[in-house]
Each structure stands twice: as C-alpha cells, then as structure tokens.
Amino acid sequence: MTIEVYESLPEDLARGIEVADGTVIVCHSPSDKHQAVQHALLNALSEAARKHDQGKGACHRVRAGIDVMLTEVPFHFRTPDLTVFRCLSDASRGRWKGKPTAADTVIVVEVVSPGSRSEDTLVKRVRYARAGIEHYWIVRLIQDDGPANSVEMLRLVSDGTYATEQVTFRKKDLLAIDTLDPFEVTVSWGQLDEWL
Predict the structure, then answer these.
(1) 166 domain-assigned
(2) pLDDT at position 54, please?
(3) What is the mean pLDDT of residues 179-190?
(4) How many domains does the chain have?
(5) What is the pLDDT of residue 29?
(6) For residue 8, is it within any domain?
(7) Is 27 helix (H, G, I), strand (E, B) or coil?
(8) Domain range spanning residue 130?
(9) What pLDDT was estimated at residue 88?
C-alpha cells in the first residue's frame, strides 16, 4: 500500500489498520482494562506536558491512537497507544496533515496486550528506533489484562537502538513513572488504576 492508496480509503477502514513497509496490518480494538490504563496514562502525560510547556514556552500534544508516519517510501505508519509530539503546523505537513511523523515524536507508549506482545516488545522496538523516536515506553499488564504491572522506559542511543533506561514494577517501586526527561513526569500506580 502507498500513501496515495491509504488516503483514498474510507475513514472507518483506514482507522482499523497500520501499514508496515507497504503491507497492511489489521488492528484489533483493545480490551476495557487496556483502554483504562491507556486513558489514565494519557491524563498523566497530558498534565505533565502542559506544565512543561507553560514553564518552557514549548508546545506538545499527547494523543491516544494517532497515526505516526515512520517513512513515506516505503509507506510505513504505526498507531501507538499514546504519542507525545511537538505541535504541528499544517502548512508544513504535506500529505500527512494533522498527524505526526517520527521526527515530530518525543515519546511513544505501547500497552502490551496478548495479541500484541511480540509486536510491542520486539518489532516496534526496532521500528521506532530506526525511525529515530527518542523515547519508547512499554507498559505491561498483570495477566495481560490489567492493572499495569511494569513500565519499561527505553531511550534511543547513539547506535540507533534502544537501551533500557528504567523499569518499574508494581510490587517493588512506589511510582510507576518518575522521570525528568524529556520532561518531568511522575505517575503513581494508583493513578494508572484510576479508570479500572
């Protein structure tokens, strides 16, 4: 599939797929608990980005389920569970209006589900790194269906791969997320459980 073919698809069909090197990947909707953890993390990251932007005069957006273009040729986009990206100007977007590219993206977050374990922990780890996305966070759920059990925070290193910067565990660590980079984010396990 090319970007031209993708743009011609009906919205309801386009919303249910990802494209990897021109090959269509059908996406399934996540479970209720997966979405609850995703929603809680969306709230926490949005608040952290807002505080950062107010203090630094910057502009970021936090979105759930927005397409992120990794390459135009071959056409390759993924739809992370959460994406933190720099605010976009539609004038400079070309065909990908309103959606971030890998170059715009600061953090991608995947919440692992039974059907996405290999994709989220292996395949996307390589793809996001090759695209140059600096931070990749992987949230694992207890028995693959919530609540959150661990958060692995990966950072892009000079050889173009991810290195684990921090892993937190529910039974061991007081906070699920406690980082200053790319901006200050503090999230408790209780916050991640808020919508369960």
Answers:
(1) yes
(2) 96
(3) 96
(4) 1
(5) 86
(6) no
(7) coil
(8) 30-192
(9) 82
Which two structure tokens, joined as six digits, stand for 43?
A: 């709230």
* pLDDT number for residue 144: 83
d(CA 142, CA 15): 28
Provide the pLDDT confidence category of residue 90 given band limits of 50, 70 and 90.
low
At 103, the amino acid letter reads: A
Of 143, 160, 158, whose CA–CA distance to 102 is shortest? 160
Q: Has residue 124 been placed in a domain?
A: yes
Assign 60 a pLDDT band (cuts: 50, 70, 90).
Answer: very high
User: For 2, phi and psi rounded to 5 degrees?
Assistant: -105, 170
Dump the DSSP string for 117-156.
HHIIIIIHHHHHHHHT-SEEEEEEEGGGSSSEEEEEEEEE
Q: Residue 186 in contact with residue 177, Cβ under 8 Å?
A: yes
How far is residue 4's CA from residue 183's CA, in Å, rounded to a whole number?
36
What single string gives the DSSP state of each residue in 42-110? HHHHHHHHHHHHHHHT--EEEEES--EEEETTTTEEE--SEEEEE---GGG-TTSTTS-BGGGEEEEEE
For the domain that residue 51 is a member of, what is the CATH number?
A: 3.90.1570.10
**Does residue 171 lie within any of the structural domains?**
yes
Q: Which two tokens stand for residue 9?
A: 């698809």
